[in-house]
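new request in #modeling-help
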Amino acid sequence: MYPKELRYSKEHEWAKTEGKRVRVGITKFAADRLSDVVYVELPAVGADIAFMQPFGVVESVKAVSDLYAPVSGKVVEINKALVEKPEVINMDPYGEAWMILVEPKDPGELGQLMDAAAYAAMVGEATS
Amino acid sequence: MSGPETTAAAPRLSSLRKRPVPVIFERGAPGRIGYSLPASDVPEAPLDEIVPAAHRRAEPAALPEVSELDVVRHYTALSHRNFSIDEGFYPLGSCTMKYNPKINEDAARQPGFARLHPYAPEEIAQGALQLLWELEHDMAEITGMDRVTFQPAAGAHGELTALLMISKYFEEKGERRHTVIVPDSAHGTNPASATFAGYKVTEVKSDARGNIDLAALTAVLTTDVAALMLTNPNTLGLFEEQILEVARAVHNVGAQLYLDGANFNAILGITRPGDQGFDVMHLNLHKTFTTPHGGGGPGAGAVGVRAHLVPFLPAPTIERAGGRFALDHERPKSIGRMRAFYGNFGNLVRAYTYIRTMGAAGLREASEMAVLNANYLLSRLRGAFDLPYDRVCKHEFVLSGRRQRDRFHVTTKDMAKRLLDYGFHAPTIYFPLIVEEAIMIEPTETESLQTLDAFVEAMLAIAREAETDPDLVRTAPHETPVTRLDEVTAARKPDLRWRARTASDPR
Amino acid sequence: MKYIPATQAERERMLRSAGVRTVDELFRDIPEEVRLKRPLDLPPAVPDPDLLAHMRRLADRNTDCDRLACFLGAGAYDHFVPSTVPHLALKPEFLTAYTPYQAELMQGELQAIYEYQTMMCELTGMDVANASMYDGASATGEAASMAADLTKRAEVLVSTAVHPEYREVLRTYTSHLPITVRDLPARDGVTPPEAARQAVTDATAAVIVQSPNFFGSIEDGDALASAAHARGALLVVAIAEPVSLGLLRPPGAYGADIVTGEGQALGNALNYGGPYLGMIATRDAFVRRIPGRLVGRTVDTEGRPGYVLTLQTREQHIRRAKATSNICTNEALNALVAAVYMATLGKQGMRDVAELCARKAHYARTRIAAVPGYSIAWDAPTFNEFVVRCPMPPAEINRRLLEHGILGGLPLGRFYPDLADCWLLCVTERRTREEIDRLAGHLETLQ
């Protein structure tokens, strides 16, 4: 149900290690709960983000949610195509809808995130 | 008894309303005019000598080119695609959509008020100043406050005014406080105003009876708290039963107690915030005091204060000395100004006229009937919908559409849209946030039993439809000029102004 | 009584349904100590005929602009209001309607506001305008907050030629935000662009000017925009007299980033200061930071065009503590009034009324300059207001003019102590040549 190679935060972000960098997005659970996403606000390239601190915002028509950083570090790339077409979040949350690519400061932080099974259990509880 | 409201509730909006109305820019023709102004009667002079060409616009603003009849037909057509209190029932919780009396309009539109310049010397504005002075006196008596300002243009504006006064109060005492507390049921303007006033916001949960949780509140009441912002009756329509304990706890840490007076229609002549221990409060004159909502505004916010906050009121205040009324600008501790001039005076005239119409007994009767009407509706609807807090309500109450959502996949939004087909405006929905699928209903005292019963019939019919014909409800409304609108595209690709379409752009 | 329809029999029925015997039982949860034990001490209820007489007497104690030739402006303008305006905008279908949250039921209101937004864009030369703010002063306060948020900078510069009450409100509004307000002194009746250029730093979020300014002078918009933009600051232009935009270059044309202002002049009554009409308009790029409501055009499920409140996630009811503004109720009806006014005057009429103002003001300016002892304070070009230096206290001049049915201009000493001999006169299209001549004539004979 949730991709096994990813790590998950309790705020529904996913983190994917790609060599020395970490790619970040939000999970299908979060995307479904927002329903139609209308807008995504991402930080500037070069911005510093901190573990579990807000780094951006995702909006639907009726709701706004902060995006929380699953790792601390520097933003090296942002997904401009997502800002152009935010609806991609609802269609491909783990692929096309990646949000930022980060050069992590402390790769140990990834250990504080959940694996796919733990995340599935967390959201499974939330929906019962 | 007669009239469409008393027949079995049935969709009845006329087909006239469904005809689309082109934007006014698509009416008219180049060169057509709809105005009449005199020719210049002063000596001719080259325009360049009057306003240099560099300062003049190259092209006139592309406003409509229409005849007077075009204008009349356009806005008349638009007026038919609206719903208003004059047309029908608006059970919007928290909004107090009571009847807007016509005599208030006659009073306010007199040239002596409407054509008075705000900087007219006081000697020729004595009528206006007297009205403001008397209205302040009335509001102070109604609320149990010591003085009242009318500068705020709306409730949220009043909230900000009050929070700035509270900040100044602490500054004068040499204290710095950084936090404002709001209950989790608070109206969105409360935390937004607190942020605008520079505060951090702490939320406190409500308890099982719908009151603010006293233990949770006490736990966060430190000397860093500047104020608790409370609505009473609260946004669940329930009176805060422990208000005296709450006031004591707040004052124990030296904080200020603020009342969001949006729900004042429940308590006119019955209890007063000043007596409950509130230090400062706002009233929405466009709710309790009948000033018209105008499609979103203007409102008028009155802010009342106890004596210790009087020095911080916005300047000027209105004073009376020996039968003469004057503006007092000499207020060295004032927070300053919240707007230019004195307030939404036109609406203050309306509120004043209303208070003179009602008198003390009339105002009390208004609240008593507002509360009785609400409890009557509650008694008739509680069987068909979930009731999160089973208490005697005040002027409004909150139901939940959870049962319909869980059993039939019909949401509160669906049911609200279906209510439009029955000729009623929907109640307030999805507020307060602490109730799932919230439906907040406030009838007000100006609605008749016939209207209430027709509304009940419609609500019960929709509850049945949710079960027997859920698709009909899920795709409602069907009888309005438009069906459900694509809000997603509206937010993704905002189209916020008309642009002339060229032949190559068929949009 | 007439607003409370429930008869005695109906009340009994409702009490029974609610399961109580008396209304009093419904208030049982209010602690005894705070239940009022006496009636409110208010004047007794007044029956309609007596009430109207009372309200008439109160109104008669004012001398309004129907009874005076009004040469007073200073942020509130006596313009001619076409008859269409009250007959259409104040129709009960608009007057007694609520905010159009249930869009399907309120297409009329929504469309009218969408058209208003469009007209304001046309008038100001900006990309997007909102559905109204409270008034010009508070709109300017909110613009400062918006500029600080957009630039992530903490300082705003405001010209002393901006309406003094707007500047006061700006300071009150920012008093507890991390924003500092610094004055940019006006000279010779205008904001000197060179002084602006020197005052703007990398910490400046915005330069705020008004044009025509409080003294009536038209500011050098291009130069001020350049001064602001040179250091990455925004130019905020406040428009207190929007009729001027029928003739003058709109702020969008000279590089304004945010336009705020007061729409009272567009068909709204003087009403002793309110309700008025705050305006705010900006560039497309800044739309998600603009405060207040926005109406957008979209389609329904059948593909029919329709209108809806949009980008609501900026607002307090969704963002709550993180909202960029707390505004909820606005001045929608006043916006509708402005829309009907602009529709009635139309493209040609807005131009004509503005030109009439300018011509008559120019005539008055020339006539008064020729009165011995009186001079025009500054050379700067003006629209329909200008400052006169007087040989006697302007307040005294006004007192004497009032005896002749003339409402004189604003004595500037109350706001600018060093301009105590100065008088701000306003001439709109309503002033006839005869009234202007009469004014000049009285000045000639006053001692």
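bot summary: The first strand of chain A starts at residue 7 and ends at 8.
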